[in-house]
Amino acid sequence: MNTPATQSLDARGLNCPLPILRTKKALNSMASGETLAILSTDPGSVKDMQAFCKQTGNALIGSNTNQGEFEFFIRKS
Amino acid sequence: MGATDKIMTQSLDQSQFDQWFDQRFETRMKAREDAHVASLAIIATKGTLDWAYPPFILASTASALGWDVSVFFTFYGLELLKKKLTLEVSPLGNPGMPMKMPFGPQWLKDINWKVPNLVMAGVPGFEKMATGMMHQTVKNNGVATIEELRGACIEAEVKLVACQMTVELFGYSPDDFIPEIQDWIGAASFLPVAQKSDVCLFI
Question: pTM for this one?
Answer without folding.
Answer: 0.80
